[in-house]
Design brief:
This protein has 410 residues and is an alpha+beta fold. It contains 18 helices and eight strands. The protein folds into three domains: 93 residues, Integrase, DNA-binding domain (Double Stranded RNA Binding Domain, 2-Layer Sandwich), CATH 3.30.160; 90 residues, DNA polymerase, domain 1, CATH 1.10.150; 200 residues, Intergrase catalytic core (hpI Integrase, Chain A), CATH 1.10.443. The strands form two sheets. It has a five-stranded mixed beta sheet with strand order 1-2-3-4-5. Strands 6-7-8 form a three-stranded antiparallel beta sheet. The protein is elongated, with a radius of gyration of 33 Å.
């Protein structure tokens, strides 16, 4: 090919083209297909299409160059782009828009910015996002999300034995996409067209039997004071594990012997006031001498890389040791809370009072208009739980129980 002839028309010519002397790259033009250019550099060859959009001249570089895209395919693509331009479709403008298009990370950031939620729900949603969504999908353009992408995310979490968390993660992503579409961060939402991805969750109904409560209560003596006391309080007061572990000195009204579970720590975002029965008070009282936390943990402030702020964060290792020591398998911290709720039913506590103790939100009109704190009723309910547990673990014998029953009857 001569110096003046900067054109090509065959695959053989395309394969042998190189930059002109003294140039880092040279543009060669197809001799028959107007607008198709081969930009030849030292290391690669790129296909470029010249097209006209209205009064504008555009130069669009195809995603694949030679030899990944053959000459015949480049000719076809060139014709498609020029045909689209005649219809007002701007491939270069779309490419530039795509370069700045929102990613999945942007979608999640927008969701947390625009969605009000309780502190605990916010923290948990953030944790799920950072643990699974961002590492796997974060850099992806949001509008490119496919069902297979969501299935892969879901499956990855399933593989580590967390079916419930897999469903929660997919649901969080769905809510974030709905928010992004409503806020016009993305111009279309791929989620409604994605067939639902979910595995059936087995509803947990584990309630400890009396002999299991007695055995575990005794085995807890071998645990550290924090672990022993937290697990026992889960049985006695029926609150959530994180609420109990993050109990602060300032949350305890020592004069009235009440625990004000702050709204920032509850799942519902509403404070819950609990009268503290005597056995639970004996557990909590030593921690009132501390500066901030009833159950402080040096581990969460001194270990390298810790994000803790000084309170106990988990009972997982303690529960594992207790399961091994007692042979009582398949129970969790939440099962202790459920056991407390079941004891209330056994002791004749009215359902709506038991739900108030647990801090559950009432539904319907009743939830809107019934603002009664139920302090007296909750105190009586927790006292009944305490008496039952005392009988189970042997702190109240049968004779004492009969005396109590006679006094109540009189």
């Amino acid at each position: 090919m001569t110096m003046s002839k900067k054109r090509f028309s065959t695959d053989r010519q395309v394969a042998t083209l190189s930059p002109r002397p003294g140039q880092k790259q040279t543009e060669y033009y197809h001799s028959q297909e107007s607008g198709l250019i081969l930009r030849v550099g030292v290391r690669k060859k790129a296909w470029v299409v010249n097209y006209v959009l209205g009064d504008l001249r555009r130069k669009y570089t195809l995603p694949s160059g030679y030899p990944d895209m053959s000459l015949a395919d480049a000719v076809k693509k060139c014709r498609d782009i020029k045909s689209d331009a005649a219809k007002g479709i701007d491939h270069l403008g779309n490419k530039q828009k795509r370069r700045t298009a929102a990613t999945v990370t942007n979608v999640m950031d927008q969701y947390f910015k625009e969605t009000p939620m309780a502190t605990k729900s916010y923290s948990e949603s953030k944790r799920i996002t950072q643990k699974d969504i961002i590492p796997m999908l974060g850099d992806m353009k949001a509008v490119d999300l496919t069902r297979q992408d969501v299935k892969d995310l879901h499956g990855k979490i399933i593989e580590r034995g967390s079916a419930v968390m897999a469903n929660r993660t997919v649901e969080l992503l769905r809510r974030a996409y709905n928010c992004a579409h409503e806020e016009e961060l993305i111009d279309h939402n791929p989620y409604p067209s994605l067939k639902k991805i979910k595995v059936k969750e087995s509803a947990r109904d584990r309630v400890l039997k009396d002999f299991e409560i007695k055995k575990l209560w005794g085995a807890m003596e071998a645990e550290s004071p924090n672990m022993r006391n937290i697990l026992r309080l889960l049985l006695l007061l029926g609150q959530r594990s994180m609420e109990t572990m993050s109990m602060r000195v300032e949350d305890i009204d020592q004069e009235r012997k009440e625990w004000i579970v702050p709204a920032s720590q509850t799942k519902t975002g509403k404070a819950n006031i609990l009268p503290i029965p005597q056995l639970a008070w004996e557990i909590i009282k030593p921690g009132l001498k501390n500066e901030k936390w009833i159950f402080p943990s040096a581990y969460n402030t001194t270990r390298k890389g810790s994000k803790g702020d000084g309170c106990t964060k988990s009972t997982k290792d303690s529960r594992r040791r207790l399961r091994k020591a007692t042979g009582i398998k398949g129970w969790t911290g939440h099962d202790l809370r459920r056991t407390c709720r079941t004891i209330m039913s056994r002791e004749g506590v009215l359902p709506h009072v038991a739900e108030q103790v647990l801090g559950h939100v009432q539904g319907g009109v009743e939830g809107i208009y019934d603002q009664h704190a139920y302090l007296k009723e909750k105190g009586a309910a927790l006292s009944r739980v305490e008496r039952r547990i005392k009988r189970i673990i042997g702190l109240i014998d049968e004779d004492q129980r009969k005396i109590v029953m006679l006094r109540r009857a009189g």
